[in-house]
Amino acid sequence: MRRLLIGALVAALALPVQADITPWASAAETRELAPDEKSLWQEAGEFDQALVRAGKVNPDPALTAYLQGIIDRLYPEFKGRIHVHLLNAQHINAFALPNGSVYVNAGLIARFQNEAQLATVMAHEGAHFTHRHSLQQAEQVKNAAAFALVVAMLGVPLVGDLVALSSMFGYSREHEREADEIGYQRLVAAGYAPRESVHTFEHLLAEVKAEDIQEPFFFASHPKLQDRIDSYRELSRDANSGEIARERYLDTTAALRLASLDADLAAYRYKQHILVLADPERRREYPPEAAYYLGEAYRQRGEAGDLERAEREYRIALETAPQFAPPHRALGLLLYKRGDKALAAPLLRRYLDLAPNAADRGYIEHYLKDLAP
Amino acid sequence: MTPCRALALGLLLASLAACSPTWTRVDSAGRLETKTKDYSVELPLGWVKNSANSSDLFITRDGPALNYIVVNRQPHDVKLPHTQRETRADMLPHELAELALAEWKSTDATANLEVLANTPATLGGQPAVRLHIRYQNERGLPIERVMVGMVDAKGRLSLVYEAPAIVYFQRSLPAFEAMVTSVRFQAP
């Protein structure tokens, strides 16, 4: 029932856009808010706090400053008004709240290759804020006949649900198109390479196909990804070159991207790792430890030949990152299951030497007893 | 009241009664639970059992928000809800622990999940895993959870205890430990 009602509300949000709400030109214009908008901002502020309380926001100051620098470069006249936050979430998602909070998921950052690709998404989200799309949707929704029923049945505050819906379930298709256009202009004006915007959506499309998912939240009511790739390609065909900022991006996000691999595999989300790490070009974006993560992804997938692929990757990791403990464990356990006791024992012992405080030490010691001659 | 109205009211009351969970307090007479003619477990006295729950057993002392123990015995081919993975009889204990963690990490409801302990254990005399985690629920409240689980030829068995980390978790942990120790598998 709730899904049906949310569907009705999303349908209401897809109605034609209100034309009499003008975009903001700078942060100074946001100082005086109309009551409806003030209420939206207040709810958004509460939503900000709820995310912090629930432990969803990654407080890493260096990464947050880096992301903030990108949005400030894209929207310099809104400096101090748009605040970027990094979310500890692996889904490919980003969203903007009515009060200028922009959230970027760690999983999204992990999928991109350079700063220009990430800037494409952030420019798009910034446009939702500067063009006041949440307020426009709030006005539309007030006029929708279904809305009173929806609010009554859901039993939730109007604005709170609207904030969640418009920000996380997606804006209307018109708003998305407008955010794409404005975002693209901002990307060019900030000096980023416009052609990278095409790759942004290509990565997302590849991800969607690999995961066999219909539509992640970020794209819930967006134009089709393939259509967007085509339109960005058309827009950027004659564009001048700009900054890609590949090295800066890879250096700054290295630890986050590695942690993201770990977090994904810990939840058995292995498909995207095979997609990314089996590609030799993408593999170069990661440190040598990545071979271990690819091996784990193969092991988790468990298709014919995957154990052999996993073993090959573990061995590469042992050779290229010999002080990294996990591949010793992984290969040791693979050999233990296979019955290669003589080969398994030294690997498991080496693992415990390298990771004396390992959380799974008890299991490894148990297996080592079993392996003792 | 017309007969028709009385019938309608009766049906409504009957359906409401059918929908409402049945809670019964555990006393010494009903303490020993034998499930699926496969294993038995002793429940802690004074706790309340919900017989309408889809799990093998669902008990709480102070209410499900403050503490609960859930017991499940399932065949291997019943997929886990979040990872959609099955268990296997030949799984090593650490593989079962890895899968349980993946299942918990696959939901947004467990932020900042931290593994406090992950060790081999025994359950009903058979090799098992013991996982102890802490996470923040959607309201930011720290929650602790312990699972003791095992696999055998018939399927998997798990006992899970969960409570808010502050006060409640430690308070009922001994009851859970006693329950785990009481598990006995029936002779085939």
Describe this entry's structure for a reader.
The complex is a heterodimer of chains A (373) and B (188). Chain A has 373 residues and is mainly α. Chain A has two domains: 2-236, no CATH class; 260-371, Serine Threonine Protein Phosphatase 5, Tetratricopeptide repeat, CATH 1.25.40. In chain A, 65% of the residues lie in helices and 4% in strands. Mean pLDDT of chain A is 84; it is low at 1-6, 12-17, 144-169 and 216-221. Chain B has an eight-stranded antiparallel sheet, with helices on both faces. Chain B has a three-stranded antiparallel sheet with strand order 2-3-11. The radius of gyration of chain B is 19 Å and the shape is globular. The A-B interface holds A 53-56, 88-89, 263, 266-269, 333, 336-337, 359-360, 362-363, 366-367 and B 83, 85, 92-94, 97, 99, 101-102, 105-106, 108, 111-112, 115, 117-120, 136-140.
SSE layout and pairing:
The complex is a heterodimer of chains A (373) and B (188).
Chain A: H1 2-13, H2 35-53, E1 57-58, H3 61-74, E2 83-87, E3 94-96, E4 101-105, H4 106-111, H5 115-130, H6 133-142, H7 145-154, H8 158-169, H9 173-189, H10 196-211, H11 225-236, H12 246-266, H13 271-277, H14 280-283, H15 290-301, H16 306-320, H17 326-338, H18 341-354, H19 361-371
Parallel strand pairs in A: 2-4
Antiparallel strand pairs in A: 1-2, 3-4
Chain B: H1 3-19, E1 23-25, E2 32-35, E3 39-42, E4 48-50, E5 57-60, E6 68-74, H2 93-105, E7 111-123, E8 126-136, E9 142-151, E10 156-164, H3 168-181, E11 184-185
Antiparallel strand pairs in B: 1-4, 2-3, 3-11, 4-5, 5-6, 6-10, 7-8, 8-9, 9-10
Overall domain count of chain B: 1
Low-confidence segments of chain B: none
Distance between the termini of chain B: 57 Å
CATH architecture level-2 label of chain B:
3-Layer(aba) Sandwich
Oligomerization state: heterodimer
Give the strand order of the largest sheet of chain A, numbering strands 1, 2, ... along the chain.
Answer: 1-2-4-3
Could you say which structural class the secondary elements and strand pairing of chain A correspond to?
mainly alpha
Question: What pair of chains forms the biggest interface?
Answer: A-B, 20 and 24 residues
Classify the fold: give the CATH topology of chain B: Protein Transport Mog1p, Chain A
The portion of residues assigned to helices of chain A is 55-70%
Number of helices of chain A: 19
